[in-house]
Amino acid sequence: MTDSLLSDPLRARLADARLYLCTDARRERGDLAEFLDAALAGGVDAVQLRDKGLEARQELEYLEVVRDACDRHGALLSVNDRADVALAAGADILHLGQNDLPVPHARRILGEGPLIGRSTSTPALAADAMAQPGVDYLCTGPTWATPTKPGRAAAGLELLRATAALRPPRPWFAIGGIDLANLDEVLAAGARRVVVVRAITDAEDPEAAARAFARRLRALPVDAG
Ligand SMILES: Cc1ncc(COP(=O)(O)OP(=O)(O)O)c(N)n1
Ligand SMILES: Cc1ncsc1CCOP(=O)(O)O
């Protein structure tokens, strides 16, 4: 990948992102649109539909709703795991885990278009991902164990401190068990961007929750990455 983050409009938008929401398809599409309008009005910068139970056709139907909501609010649309679905949905981002498509293969399918994000769970994996051409951002965690990703041990705040110490040249996000009550610990560990699920999807007032995250995340400067 090139490191010309700010010369590419999509990478510039990613560099500005602080709050990344993953949501499942538990809501009907009309309710999903309303929920997303609230979360995006509150300050969510990127939305991923993360629902392992959907077939591609259903996923695309839901992604239309997410695409429209992101367009209304100028946010980035992210697709999890599948390069074909990302292309078909006109996604801005494809997010890949350690066991998903290798980045060069995904890039071959995607061409120059969407950005690619990579999950990491140790500082060594983060360093490795940063060294890979084509990785546009990292996501590291789970910081705390979470029912949203069962069976995965907590990596702890130490993972965030170690990742921050690497001074990643690309944006990096902390994930896993993050909520408004522990956000200060996440920020103190050096993270400046977060991915959240339940803290917004389960919030009584998703707009207020997103606004509180965004205000506190945007109060601090980010590094070049
Ligand atoms: C933005 C973002 N970050 C991390 C993940 C987790 O991806 P992965 O490790 O591949 O796990 P699954 O989501 O596939 O269960 C993500 N999806 N999005
Ligand atoms: C997808 C994923 N990958 C690592 S933790 C996680 C889920 C985070 O969800 P929550 O914010 O509800 O803890």
Textual characterization of the structure:
- Keywords: Magnesium, Metal-binding, Thiamine biosynthesis, Transferase.
- Pathway: Cofactor biosynthesis; thiamine diphosphate biosynthesis; thiamine phosphate from 4-amino-2-methyl-5-diphosphomethylpyrimidine and 4-methyl-5-(2-phosphoethyl)-thiazole: step 1/1.
- Belongs to the thiamine-phosphate synthase family.
- The chain is an alpha/beta fold and 225 residues long.
- It has a single domain, classed as TIM Barrel (Alpha-Beta Barrel), CATH 3.20.20.
- Helices cover 43% and strands 16% of the residues.
- It contains ten helices and eight strands.
- Strands 1-2-3-4-5-6-7-8 form an eight-stranded parallel beta barrel, surrounded by seven helices.
- The radius of gyration is 16 Å and the shape is globular.
- The relative contact order is 0.16.
- The model has no long low-confidence stretch (mean pLDDT 95).
- The structure holds the ligand Cc1ncc(COP(=O)(O)OP(=O)(O)O)c(N)n1 and 4-methyl-5-hydroxyethylthiazole phosphate (TZP).
- Residues 20, 22, 48, 50, 80-81, 95, 97, 100, 117, 119, 139, 149, 175, 195 line the site of the ligand Cc1ncc(COP(=O)(O)OP(=O)(O)O)c(N)n1.
